[in-house]
Amino acid sequence: MKKLLLAPLLALGLGACAPAQPLVQVPTFEVQSVRLTRLNLPSGKDPALANLTLRLRVQNPNPVPVRLANIAGRFVIDGQEVGTVNLPNVSLPARGETEQRADLSLPVTLQTAGAFLRVARGQEVSYRVDGTFTADLGVLGRPTFGPFTLVQGVWRQPAILPF
């Protein structure tokens, strides 16, 4: 009888020694869409600009709501940094998600013009957003996590330029 009780107790004891899941899990980021909406050539004193819309889905795997005070990143196309992304005050429900939209107006330089033209012509380019996020933990403070690659992928959309 003692042997029959000892086996389950031993299993419970060893199970307690197994590594547990972390208390807080990092939110995940996923691009829903990235779209070049306008490409302006330089005109007089106005510089060349690319306007785009980036939609991100941010998911919270935690059983409690989380507020991100800021998501800050560098937008990179074909290895060239083209601008920054800042999303303040992102509230995430417990085990839920939210979609965030960033409307960006980015300068077009000699180094980035080719990539923007390829997108405008409907051709593929690679992209990524490298950055950090700051969690608002109330009395526990505002720790910043990163830098790391938040999202990456291949960007291709229907052409917006006829040539």
TrEMBL record:
SMART domains: WHy. Residues 1-20 form the signal peptide. It is a single-pass membrane protein. The lineage of its organism: Bacteria, Thermotogati, Deinococcota, Deinococci, Deinococcales. The keyword Membrane applies. It comes from the Bacteria. GO terms for cellular component: membrane. The keyword Repeat does not apply. It holds the Pfam family LEA_2. Keywords: Membrane, Signal, Transmembrane, Transmembrane helix. It comes from Deinococcus aerius. GO terms for biological process: defense response to other organism; response to desiccation. This is Desiccation protectant protein Lea14. Residues 34-151 form the Water stress and hypersensitive response domain. InterPro entries: LEA_2, NDR1-like, WHy-dom. It is found in: Membrane.
